[in-house]
Design a protein that fits this description.
This protein has 300 residues and is an alpha/beta fold. It has two domains: 131 residues, Rossmann fold (3-Layer(aba) Sandwich); 157 residues, Aspartate/ornithine carbamoyltransferase (Rossmann fold, 3-Layer(aba) Sandwich). It is globular and about 55 Å long. The protein binds phosphoric acid mono(formamide)ester and norvaline.
């Protein structure tokens, strides 16, 4: 793995990365990235991604630079390729949260140091790795069915790929027109042929969540979709994860959300703050998953 732009880039290493993340969770390991620097470029807001990368880098003995595109020359039109080539001379890795996935591809093509996708409109691979660490810690394996309810967005796309790789069944319950990315869905189905995972998309949310082991949702209006807000809030209403919907899942099903959440929209307070919810564990696990990713990509 040279860069981590998509879950597909860690296809052969997911199990190893999960083991490494568990190791980082258990043991405080010092200074394996001593004197390394990670540049963190943000075109959009972040709480978890920014803090967990920065804290993770500090704990591994390195340092992280927070760079908002408002402050970089890239915000005034400097090319992505020049930015990548210049930054490669200063730092040992670049994490980027970008509006458009094509921009991180261009950044990676021109960078001589590893590039890590910290979320784009297409994927959120670091989140997916932390989510599988959470499922592994709670359930012990990837048997069973994960149902993603709502918008077939970046988080959903990365979950499809990682579930396919790890052999976990996944159903996406979404309204027509909000299905996951077609190419990613096809790729996930192809990968699933080798791992015997079942990957599908359904419009009927009640049939999808029937006997689910994991119910996962995300916001109805992702960053970048704000101009569609009115229409989306209307279309997604039947896809709210509430107590009634949870009652169709298995009794010991867990509720997951990448956060930030909007209570009263995609999920009700009684579910996200209830005893089936593991959302804060997911957020904590971002730290260990990212340490595993940075170690894997940036160690000497
Ligand atoms: N889940 C996640 O990526 O959160 P942030 O947007 O706060 O980084
Ligand atoms: N789908 C959300 C995820 C935020 C972590 C977004 O892109 O805004």
């Amino acid at each position: 793995m040279k860069h981590l732009l998509s879950v597909c880039d860690m296809r052969d290493e997911v199990v190893h990365l999960l083991d490494l993340a568990s190791y980082f969770k258990k043991d405080k390991i010092d200074a394996v990235l001593k004197d390394k620097t990670l540049a963190m470029i943000f075109q959009k807001s972040s709480t978890r991604t920014r803090i967990s990368f920065e804290v993770g880098m500090n704990q591994l003995g390195g340092s992280a630079l927070y760079l908002s595109t408002n402050d970089l020359q890239i915000g005034r039109g400097e090319s992505i390729s020049d930015t990548a080539r210049v930054m490669s001379r200063y730092v040992d890795g670049i994490m980027i949260r970008a509006l458009h996935h094509k921009d991180i591809i261009e950044l990676a093509e021109n960078s001589t140091v590893p590039v890590i996708n910290g979320l784009t409109d297409l994927e959120h691979p670091c989140q997916a790795l932390a989510d599988m660490l959470t499922i592994k810690n709670i359930r012990g394996n990837f048997n069973g069915k994960l149902v993603f309810v709502g918008d077939g967005n970046n988080v959903c796309n990365s979950l499809l790929l990682i579930c396919a790789i790890l052999g976990m069944d996944m159903v996406v319950a979404c309204p027509k027109g909000y299905e996951p990315n077609e190419t990613i869905l096809k790729k996930a189905k192809d990968i699933a042929k080798n791992t015997n995972a079942s990957i599908s998309v359904e419009e009927d949310v009640y049939s999808a969540v029937n006997s689910a082991d994991v119910i996962y949702t995300d916001v109805w209006v992702s960053m970048g979709d704000e101009d569609e807000e009115k229409e989306r809030l209307n279309v997604f209403k039947p896809y709210q994860v509430n107590k009634e919907l949870m009652s169709y899942a298995k009794d010991d099903a867990i509720f997951m959300h990448c956060l930030p959440a909007i209570r009263g929209q995609e999920v009700t307070s009684d579910v996200i703050d209830g005893e089936q919810s593991v959302v804060i564990d997911q957020a904590e696990n971002r730290l260990y998953a990212q340490k595993a990713i940075m170690y894997n990509l940036m160690k000497d």
